[in-house]
């Protein structure tokens, strides 16, 4: 689960940590607060369920927009703002971890009506700003084609080593 808070200053790291403990939410790593200060992501886990929680601390205009468009969900007595599917895909495209490509494919499969043009536009901006064209190149293979409504572009599967036997021609 990924949740957003607007400002670590507004909520305070320590206030956030003490509130989390009340809900059986604990740091996932040692020095979680120090990691959050440098990475802008606080890594937590809900101990009873084992669900990992990443709290992104907004700093960029994209993150501020993602907060404004977040959808509040209720989990037990906890109200959590969660990113839209499009914003989550953008974050995963930027992170570029191997698991993120799988997550993006699953998100696209489960949400066929995503705003492909919007996602592509934002990732293109990040790719240009970071001088990493692979951000966009890797993403477009996972998104539905904009030219063919309802059609999907699938990530290329890794070779399995199995090849179809071809009939040999006799010369």
Averaged pLDDT, please? Answer: 77
Coarse structural class: alpha+beta
Q: Unreliable segments (pLDDT under 50, ≥5 consecutive)?
A: 147-171
Radius of gyration: 20 Å
Q: How are the strands ordered across the major sheet?
A: 1-4-3-2
Number of DSSP strand runs? 6
Order of helices and strands: EHHEHEEHEEHHHH
- Mind summarizing the main beta sheet? 4 strands, mixed
Distance between the termini: 62 Å
Helix content: 40-55%
In terms of DSSP E residues, the strand content is 15-25%
Helical region count?
A: 8
State the shape. Answer: globular
Please tell me about this protein's structure.
With 171 residues, the chain is an alpha+beta fold. It contains eight helices and six strands, in the order βααβαββαββαααα. The strands form two sheets. The chain has a four-stranded mixed beta sheet with strand order 1-4-3-2. It has a two-stranded antiparallel ribbon with strand order 5-6. Helix 5 packs antiparallel against helix 6. It is globular and about 45 Å long. The C terminus is likely disordered.
Which secondary structure elements does this structure contain, and how are they paired or packed?
Layout: E1 2-5, H1 8-11, H2 13-22, E2 25-27, H3 32-39, E3 41-46, E4 51-57, H4 61-68, E5 71-75, E6 78-82, H5 85-95, H6 98-110, H7 116-130, H8 134-140
Parallel strand pairs: 1-4
Antiparallel strand pairs: 2-3, 3-4, 5-6
Features:
4-stranded mixed sheet; alpha+beta; 171 residues; 6 strands; disordered C terminus; 8 helices
Please sum up the structure shown.
With 171 residues, this protein is α+β, with helices and mostly antiparallel strands. It has eight helices and six strands.
């Amino acid at each position: 689960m990924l949740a957003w808070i607007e400002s670590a200053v507004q909520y305070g790291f320590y206030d956030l940590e003490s509130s989390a403990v009340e809900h059986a939410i604990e740091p996932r790593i040692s020095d979680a607060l120090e990691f959050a200060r440098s990475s802008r992501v606080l890594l937590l886990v809900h101990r009873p369920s084992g669900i990992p929680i990443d709290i992104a601390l907004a700093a960029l205009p994209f993150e501020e927009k993602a907060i404004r468009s977040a959808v509040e969900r209720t989990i037990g007595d906890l109200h959590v703002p969660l990113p839209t599917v499009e914003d989550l895909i953008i974050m995963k495209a930027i992170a570029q971890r191997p698991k993120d490509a799988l997550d993006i494919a699953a998100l696209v499969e489960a949400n066929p009506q995503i705003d492909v043009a919007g996602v592509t536009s934002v990732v293109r901006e990040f790719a240009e700003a970071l001088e990493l064209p692979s951000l966009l190149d890797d993403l477009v293979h996972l998104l539905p084609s904009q030219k063919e409504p309802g059609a999907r572009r699938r990530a290329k599967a890794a070779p399995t080593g199995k090849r179809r036997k071809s009939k040999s021609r006799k010369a």
